[in-house]
Hints:
Blueprint: E1 6-9, H1 14-27, E2 32-36, E3 47-49, H2 55-65, E4 69-72, H3 78-81, H4 85-106, E5 110-112, E6 115-116, H5 140-159, E7 163-164, E8 166-168, E9 170-172, H6 185-196, E10 198-201, E11 209-213, H7 214-226, E12 238-239, E13 243-245, H8 247-257, E14 262-265, H9 270-275, H10 284-290, H11 298-311
Parallel strand pairs: 1-2, 1-4, 2-3, 4-5, 5-7, 6-8, 8-12, 9-11, 10-14
Antiparallel strand pairs: 11-13
Helix pairs in contact: 4-5, 6-8, 8-11
Bound molecules: nicotinamide-adenine-dinucleotide and 2-amino-3-ketobutyric acid.
Amino acid sequence: MLQEKILVTGAGGQIGTVLCDELRKIYGEENVIGSDIKAQVNSSGPFVILDILNTQRMCEIIDDHGINQIYHLAAILSASGEWMPLKTWNVNLNSLLDIFEIAREKNIKKIFYPSTIAVFGKSTPQKDTPQYTSLEPTTAYGMSKLSGELWSQYYFNRYGMDIRSVRYPGIISYQSLPGGGTTDYAVEIFHEALKNGQYTCFLKEDTYLPMVYMPDAIQGTLQLMEAPSDKLSVRTSYNLSSMSFSPSELANEIKKNIPNFTIKYEPDFRQQIAESWSQSILDDVARKDWNWSPKYDLESMTKDMIFQLKKN
Ligand code: NAD
Ligand code: AKB
């Protein structure tokens, strides 16, 4: 059997730090190479510095380590992306096309490409958004991710490349901090609740967004990557759903565990981004094709977040 040798880009980020640990448990520490533009302190295994736009360096790393799978996480997220739209397009989309071309040449057998609920826009039905729907994103991040989805499908159809993707909702994690997104409030709120007993939220209290807890997001990613190729009917990106809540609902849930917690609302430019996205998602196709089935809801996620953060 061919030994898996996996390169993870953006490995120092919110998802990458956790995903690398999980991949190493499955494939062995030395078989998962983390990479990022910035040094990663506390990497649990091999790590290299890689600016994703440096294709020559990427080829060297792939050759040196005999890489045959890539998880391409490096990106600029929705809020940061609005400060540098053209750079966001370059980092998010051009790096993906570089990876596809390198992978084609070097026979990389599988690629994971994370997409996002940011591909939805004002013309998308906001509640129970179906898999196949109108996609008119308004952010540079959303446009780059949607284009990436279409290119993934193109490389699959044209060259038979096995590229797999999910549209992650906002991810909530205790292990790592988020990096410049619109859903970041749902992680920050826990840290502030435990540290200061209060939080100032940059979204309005009734802004509903789809969210998922990190253990479910990682489990789903691994499940998708292990699924038989012929079961996968979606080669753009799968809708993934778990929970949907507003800041005030999350605050009320936190109050059940930290009774003195208070929240106030000072919406900023991220409010407009959030309002352009879906509030809840239908993920029936992911459930049918590769058995996606998240375990956590708002209540169990909140309890576990507080428990884990206190423990650490
Ligand atoms: P993050 O911002 O925490 O991490 C991204 C990482 O990419 C950072 O460590 C950053 O240093 C790195 N990076 C940026 N530019 C780079 C470059 N030029 N070269 C190499 N590395 C570079 O993001 P995340 O939350 O871990 O997200 C990972 C992926 O998942 C992204 O593609 C994102 O679009 C997607 N996603 C995340 C969420 C979420 O809620 N976290 C939701 C939907 C989709
Ligand atoms: C963001 O808010 O930009 C990300 C995402 C949902 O893609 N968390």
